[in-house]
Amino acid sequence: MKFNTVLKYVKSVLDGFWDLLYPPKCVFCAALMEVRRDKIYICESCRKTVRFCANLHCCAVCGAPMVSSEYKYCASCYNKRKNGFPIYFERIVGVFEYNDDSKQGILALKNAQRLDAYDTYSVLLHGMLLSKLGGVNFDMIVTVPPSRQRMNGIGFDQCVRLAEKLEKLTGVKYVKGCMKRNRETLPQKSLNLGQRMTSISGAFSLRVPGDTVRNKTVLVIDDIATTGSTVNECARVLKEAGARAVYGGVIAITPAPSAVRTGSDSNRYAAVK
Ligand SMILES: [Zn+2]
Ligand SMILES: [Zn+2]
């Protein structure tokens, strides 16, 4: 028997013991589940309530789910373009719509007892990257620099764990600590567009030598995108250092504003169909 075959056998036996000791649970409701080959632990009941971006029409830039499939871009991205706010990233891709149903599952990321959630989320994010950005050859993965609040709350950085899992799934190198946070920022959700741009501007800077990112296609990992401003600021830093293209990969994205979700303002958005 070859050494690799023996290793695989030993690993499968150890995995079996692990599953007996810690039976898999749904990442949303913690219901006990059978072991699954795809490692996606979301029970049948939660699959019915959670909204997967894969099944929704999402903005072609920030990835926000929209109710109407009439428009290519959400109102926020449309207004940014119209008002000359620069968008530095190419596109953001998310796994779930962030709402009351998915909130519990996302909180599992912050729960040190639910480290199994990272397997489910990284497999799902990998699937979304393949289906939506399959033609993109990433050179490196980076993470949004954590806020003090994030680190204090859970003691570890969930984006780092996600990026490490994605590195294993994709084979794309994760450059840890690529960017640093220069200062704390206000929660983006509470601010209007202009305030968001001002609040986040200059909040991050590059920690690695510029050569690391020059001419590279970069994937930025974050947990939740509420406005795309955080990924945008990371993209600004990376592009200024010479990155060729920057994409965002997140677990959840808040839905687009209702004006576009209902498609009620057709004249205003007709130009960006
Ligand atoms: Zn469940
Ligand atoms: Zn958008």
From TrEMBL:
Residue ranges constituting the Phosphoribosyltransferase domain according to the UniProt record: 212-246
Family according to the record: Belongs to the ComF/GntX family.
TM helices/strands, residue ranges: none
Chain ranges of the Double zinc ribbon domain: 18-77
InterPro entries reported in the protein's UniProt record: ComF/GntX_DNA_util-trans, DZR_2, PRTase-like, PRTase_dom
Organism of origin: Candidatus Monoglobus merdigallinarum
PANTHER family referenced in this protein's UniProt entry, alphabetically: DNA UTILIZATION PROTEIN YHGH (PTHR47505)
Protein name per its UniProtKB record: ComF family protein
